[in-house]
Predict the structure.
Amino acid sequence: MRRTGLAVVLVLNIILEPFASEAQPGKVWRIGVLSALPPEAPRWQPFHEGLRGLGYVEGRNIAFEWRSSGGRAERFPDLAAELARLKVDVIVAGDNPAITAAQKATKTIPIVMVLAMDPIASGFAQSLARPGGNITGMTVQGTDLQSKILQILKEAVPATSRVGILWFPTEPGREVQAKEAEVAARALGLRPLLVEARNPGDLDKGFAAMAREKLDAVQIHPSQLTFAHRFRIAELAAKNRLPSIAFIPWWAEVGGLLSYSQKDKDQYDRAAHYVVKILNGAKPADLPIEQPTRFELKVNLKTAKALGLTIPQTIILQADHVIE
């Protein structure tokens, strides 16, 4: 994880926490949300619960303007522009495509990130400790994340020497991830092959290319396209007998071999705290960006069996969830 400024982040967060006071009586705040998912999606429940726990209840003192892309990242710019025209009090943006769209739509409305990948390199903030603009919130990535993911893959499937990296160049910030993964793979003695997917049709082509190259495993990168076609991607990995890992909480649950990620509940709950701080007068420029402190490893033994793999006991013992 990126450690620079972490101590400052933690100290400032403690100092700023008291600003999350009770909701102002009589005021109805409008919260805009940009997400691939609808408001009733389980992934967003900790956010709703976090707001309620801080005294902000829909229909009483907050109202949502929810804009869902349905897994189509190209819709975000128009959706973000709608929220800017509505002059909502704060915009909550799920991941990099949504954050980028919100950033382009407004320089004045506060934006709270939930699952930002590398916010400094992506241009969302000047630093973790002092974001400096109208964007703050949660990041899910540090500089050693790609290395950790590939280490887990290598330990789980020791025969791996050539690994595919399936990534999505049409979405903001994804190139940074792909290059970090490539560097991390080489440092671990693996030979990486970057495989681009710009649209659903590229998925079949990409896996066909990996099969031709006789790759041993594949790392699936997160994206709107990954979410929208998650079952198809897991099916293609299984069909081509490629053990897979992803920095996605639900990847093992849809049939992937391994997933390693932040605890989603923490991210969404903390996003609610950021929203409340802003509604109570805090400025995004002064609110430190938080990194995740808890991660979880999931292993799908059913998938391992189908691939003819025996997962080492060291990985089983590390796992937070084992799917059988």
User: Anything to note?
Assistant: Residues 145-261+296-323 form a domain with the Rossmann fold fold (CATH 3.40.50.2300). DSSP finds twelve helices and twelve strands in the chain.
